[in-house]
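haha ok so turns out i had the wrong file open the whole time. this is the CORRECT one, sorry everyone. sequence first:
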Amino acid sequence: MQWLVVLDPIEGLVSKTDTSLAIIRQARESGIDVDTATIEDLFFETHAAVLATDAAGRKGAKALQEYALILMRKEPPYDLAFHYATQLLSLAGSLVVNSPSSLRDFNEKLIALPFRKYMPSTLVSSNPQVIGDFVARHGTCVIKSLDSFQGKSVQKIEPSDQALVTSFTGGGKQPVMVQEFLENVHKGDKRVMLLGDRFLGAAMRRPKKGYHANFANSDALQTELTPKEQQIIAEVGPWLLQHSIHFTGLDLIDEQLTEINITCPTGIVQISALEGRRLAEEIVDYFVKLVQ
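then structure:
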C-alpha cells in the first residue's frame, strides 16, 4: 500500500511534536510506503501527478492515482496556492483526506457557523460600523482574520478600538470574525480531536501568558469532556463525516465551540503523552480500514 502526505517542508517541522510526522512514522512502521510532497510538487500533464519524495529521500514523478490514500496536511493560511492544490488533488482518482472539495468549501472559522447555538456570540462582517455596534453591545471581544491559525491574527478588541477594526478589515473590504471574549480562556482552550465521527482524544491548552491558547504557547493538560461537550461532538461529528472530513480538531472554551480545524489539525503527540496512548497508531489503523 502506498500513501502520499502533502505537507509543509519537512525541515521546518518540529519532529518531536508534529502530528503529520507522527502519522508518517507510524504508517512506515506498519509497512506502508509513505511518500511526501509539498503543494509546489503537485502538477498536471495528461493526469494529476506529483514529484514525490520516498522514505530514502529519492524524488520522482508519480501519478496521484497510484496512491491508495493522500493526506492533505498543508498548514494554513488557505491562500490561492492552497486553493489550486486542492483542485489538483480533486483529480487524483484516490481517496484524499480531508476532502479537497470540503477544504475549498469550508473556512476553518466559518465552518462552525451552522452550529452557532454552541458558539459564543459571533459576528462575521467587513463593515466597521456593524463591527463597532457588535462590540459596543458585547463589550470586550476578539477579532480574528478568517485565515488565521494557531492564534495568529487574533486580538482582543474594545469598543474604542476603531483603528484595529480598520486594520483587520483592510478599510472595510475584508471580512473578519468577531466573538465575545470568554474570560475562561485563561483557564484553557480545549482541543478535541475527532477521527471520523468519533471522539479520539482531548487536551486542555492553558496559556502560559496572555490569552492565546495553542500548543506552542500553552501547557498541555489532561482533560475530560463534559456532557455538553459530548453533545456538541455528537452533532458535529456526523456532519463532518458526511462531508468527507475524517480528521478534525475542535476548539472549545468554557464549553463553547470557537473553531473547527480541518486543514491540518494537531495535538495527537501531546494527547498521546498525557493519556499513555498511541493515537498515531489508531489513526493509521482507521485509514487502512477506510481504503481497504
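DSSP finds eight helices and 16 strands in the chain.
again sry for the mixup
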